[in-house]
Design goal:
- With 125 residues, the chain is of the alpha+beta class.
- The protein has 5 helices and 4 strands.
- The strands form 2 sheets. It has a two-stranded parallel ribbon with strand order 1-2.
- Strand 3 and strand 4 form a beta hairpin.
- Helix 2 runs parallel beside helix 3.
- The longest helix is centred in the middle third of the chain and has 18 residues.
- The protein is elongated and about 50 Å long.
- Keywords: ATP-binding, Nucleotide-binding.
Length: 125
Amino acid sequence: NRVSKILGIENLLEKRTFEVSGGQAQRTAIARALIHDPSLLLADEPTGNLDSKASKTVMELFEKINKEEKVTTMMVTHDPLAASYCNRILFIKDGVIYNEIYKGESRQQFYQEIIDLLALLGGGN
């Protein structure tokens, strides 16, 4: 019940998969991953199938889980906006760590750093 409160899914506990939205399903998947109080949460493209509003909600939840529950999230993403919620980013090119950056004070500034580095890597949009 504690995990469902953290993720704001108390109203979904009795629902079936086909009765919830993509964002709700993603929050439910995060809840399942948190049940046993892990210190590390692995997330593979957690916002890939979500609209922008649901993506923002999920990324804010990862931030909250990190700060309040002291759980580290290791995430794979191609989405610069999702990446901007992270504290540290490793860029991998051809299977090798190419660069590493850390968030400063501003998420917007960090987002711009990500975009600039992606352009250097040849992966800019």
